[in-house]
Specification:
Blueprint lengths: L3 H4 L3 E8 L9 E7 L4 H12 L8 E5 L4 E3 L6 H4 L7 E5 L1 E7 L5 E7 L4 H12 L7 E4 L7 H6 L11 E3 L36 H4 L3 H11 L7 H6 L6 H7 L20 E6 L13 H16 L7 H20 L9 H13 L21 E11 L5 E11 L2 E5 L11 E4 L4 E7 L4 E10 L2 E9 L2 H15 L9 H15 L24 H6 L2 H12 L7 H13 L7 E7 L6 E5 L3 E5 L6 E6 L3 E7 L4 E6 L3 E7 L4 H14 L12 H8 L4
Parallel strand pairs: 1-5, 6-10, 7-9
Antiparallel strand pairs: 1-2, 3-4, 3-5, 6-7, 8-10, 11-12, 11-17, 12-13, 13-14, 15-16, 16-17, 18-19, 18-24, 19-20, 20-21, 22-23, 23-24
Length: 678
């Protein structure tokens, strides 16, 4: 007979690893436990066994085999599934992490490795004083984007590690709650909107002393460009497949850093993931505006987004010559004074920043007749054998449709054709110097996209029709209150391109100390000689030379948003029933199927027409249903399908934001829309 005490014993030995700095304490400690012992009791027994008086509140158990945290301290070991073979590590939840910001500046700070990434990014943004943390996320740089740098320079250290900004002593980094005052709607400005330098009250965010002030200023100010040699060594995507590599490494917002294989002192990229910059306010968003500007600047320099030669020179004039010059100016570095604030208030009243993601514009209730446009425009229809048919017609734009007639007199009858622009792609085709003002419309039809080109006679006509087309593609009419601001934004961008209108004469290239190769992408460095580039950048600079620093950055962001490819994140996918791979472009309001070989859009699906979407986790397939019995399904080849699922849900979540509501985020709704059920 075996005694009941020997046979029925519920105790067993559990080997625990302790992650600490004390040399006189063993790394592995064995405890006798039972299955009904809760996790909190296990922590207490372990701390008593270690018997070292210190603050253990940040410690928790990490289960190495299952890659998960045991954070529910009231759960028993049996409920958690912990048995004798479990490898539990007693370690800190907050660990040091290196983050490379959009400005390519690397900061080192303490981050929660046990919180979901969504919460961790929120805490990081509080440390960096960046509002609207939901627009950002963490990106793990893929191996493909590092190959060129390693090949070119195997022995040198990575530039970002040479100059690291250490923010590990900030209150949030230390695990303390942040001061919510910085996020109050009624707060006074914490930054000088002109220079981006912090006001005195902001210093408490980083701590006391001059080092805190310097840290804060660095994040809000732009810095000189890197050398052309360094730029040439950085990864530059050449094809859509290359661009897809840039978006493969987004971390899962519903899981912790540790669960996704991130280790202490690892380096991640902090980037704006969602291109809907909501409530951008120069008074409070000096760091945020600068980081958006920097992300746009690097995207253009590294050719992550395509732009024309004319646009590249405008970007060079704004970002390089103007912003760099103002950022380095000793006058701008002076502390904020009342007169500067007054000037900024005046500038802000004149500069209406219209960015996607704001309140849905309300149609004026007292309008009974929807505005319309009527003009003679040229219609260009691409023909086979590379021939184009160009003919002038009388066009009428009403609601969200364009109708065209043989002439003005026949406008009372039936139109030759009526084009419904809702859900179409609108692409500018403009060359101000050549007086070319074209609008390319890609209108969804049953078997793909119908291409239509409209040619306008002048800037004013182009701005009115282009603004109407942009709004119509989103299902809005010209009665929408955003129509006039959209017209003004387009005219402003055209004016920047029209260098001949400027009365000032550009300085001679020989008299200016400038390295133009630092301000344009390598493609244009190869195309032009240095002196030619300098002359053209200086010529373009005349139209922006009177702007303040913050206005130049905002204009740069607006110009970036005007590019056809703005806001598109690319993934290589295989659609159900297809025998070849395609590229899927994910934007804030639509999905675009793109031919990988030609780069031409095939079909567009709007989020506004989407009924539901889900993922079959077994075969990793995303399925989406739209109105009118349209459904699509695809598998993602260049990244995990969870990334695309989160992108769609994230953009829908961001569309629910409103200035009228409290600025606290509905984190539960975000995870409901993006988390999925694996």
């Amino acid at each position: 007979m075996v005694s009941s005490t020997e046979y029925g014993s519920h105790t067993w030995e559990l080997l625990l690893k302790v992650d600490h700095q004390h040399e006189d304490v063993e790394e592995e400690i064995s405890l006798t436990v039972t299955g009904d012992l809760h996790v909190g009791g296990l922590m207490l027994k372990l701390v008593e066994k270690i018997s070292i008086p210190q603050d253990w509140s940040d410690y928790a158990f990490w289960w190495e085999q299952k890659k998960c945290w045991l954070l529910k301290t009231h759960w028993t070991l049996d409920k958690c599934g912990v048995q004798a073979d479990a490898k539990l590590i007693f370690t800190t939840q907050h660990k040091m992490l290196r983050l490379r910001l959009p400005s390519m500046k690397t900061v080192r700070l303490k981050v929660s490795f046990s919180s979901m990434v969504f919460r961790a990014v929120s805490d990081i943004c509080k440390m960096l004083n960046i509002r609207r943390s939901e627009e950002l996320s963490l990106l793990k740089q893929s191996e493909g984007t590092l190959k060129k740098k390693k090949k070119k320079d195997k022995n040198s250290k990575e530039p970002a590690t040479e100059d690291i900004l250490n923010l590990c002593n900030s209150p949030v980094s230390a695990g303390l709650p942040a001061n919510p005052g910085l996020y109050s709607k009624t707060m006074t400005p914490v930054y000088d909107p002109v220079s981006g330098s912090p006001a005195a009250s902001t210093i408490t965010w980083f701590g006391d002393g001059s080092s805190a002030e310097q840290s804060c200023s660095i994040l809000a100010l732009s810095h000189p460009n890197c050398s052309p040699e360094t730029l040439a060594e950085m990864y530059q995507p050449r094809t859509l497949a290359d661009k897809a590599k840039l978006n493969a490494g987004w971390l899962d917002s519903s899981r912790s850093l540790m669960e996704q294989g991130v280790l202490e002192e690892d380096q991640l990229l902090l980037r704006f993931k969602y291109y809907t910059f909501f409530d951008l306010n120069p008074k409070y968003d000096a760091v945020r505006i600068n980081q958006i500007y920097e992300q746009a600047r690097w995207a253009i320099l590294l050719e992550e987004i395509d732009c024309t030669e004319e646009e590249m020179l405008i970007f060079a004039a704004l970002q390089a010559y103007h912003v760099s010059k103002l950022s380095l100016s000793s006058e701008i570095q002076d502390s904020t004074c009342e007169s500067e604030v007054d000037e900024v208030e005046a500038a802000l009243s004149n500069l209406e920043v219209t960015l996607e993601g704001g309140n849905k514009s309300k149609i004026l209730e007292d309008i009974t007749d929807i505005p319309k446009l009527a003009d003679n425009l040229k219609l260009v229809r691409p023909k086979k054998l590379a021939l184009k048919a160009i003919k002038t017609y009388w066009f009428i734009f009403r609601d969200t449709s364009i109708s065209y007639f043989k002439n003005k007199e026949s406008a009372q009858g039936e139109p030759i054709e009526k084009l419904n622009l809702k859900g179409c792609e609108v692409v500018p085709d403009v060359n101000v110097a050549a007086k070319k003002f074209g609008i390319k419309l890609l209108i969804p039809v049953a078997d793909g996209m119908n291409e239509v080109y409209l040619r306008c006679d002048n800037e004013d006509q182009y701005a009115r029709w282009m603004a109407a087309c942009v709004l119509a593609s989103k299902g809005r009419t010209m009665a929408d209150s955003s129509y006039q601001p959209e017209v003004q934004k387009i005219l402003s961008f055209l004016q920047m391109k029209n260098w001949t209108m400027c009365s000032q004469t550009a300085p001679e290239p020989e008299t200016v100390d400038m390295k133009p190769e630092c301000f344009v992408s390598p493609r244009y460095t190869k195309k032009f000689k240095s002196k030619q580039l300098t002359a053209r950048i200086l010529e373009a600079h005349q139209n922006v030379s009177q702007m303040s620093l913050v206005e130049a950055k905002l204009r740069f962001i607006q110009a970036w948003q005007s590019l056809p490819e703005f806001g598109l994140s690319y993934y290589i996918v295989r659609f159900k029933g297809s025998k070849k791979d395609d590229v899927l472009g994910v934007s804030y309001n639509r999905l675009i199927r793109i031919d990988m070989a030609t780069g031409d859009p095939i079909t567009t699906w709007r989020f506004s027409n989407m009924k539901q979407w889900n993922v079959n986790w077994e075969i990793r397939q995303v399925a989406i249903e739209f109105d009118q019995n349209v459904s699509i399904a695809f598998t993602c080849l260049s990244a995990d399908c969870k990334i695309i699922h989160e992108y769609i849900g994230g953009y829908i979540f961001l569309s629910t934001r409103s200035k009228d509501h409290n600025e606290t985020l509905d984190e539960e709704l975000f995870h409901k829309l993006t988390g999925g059920q694996e």
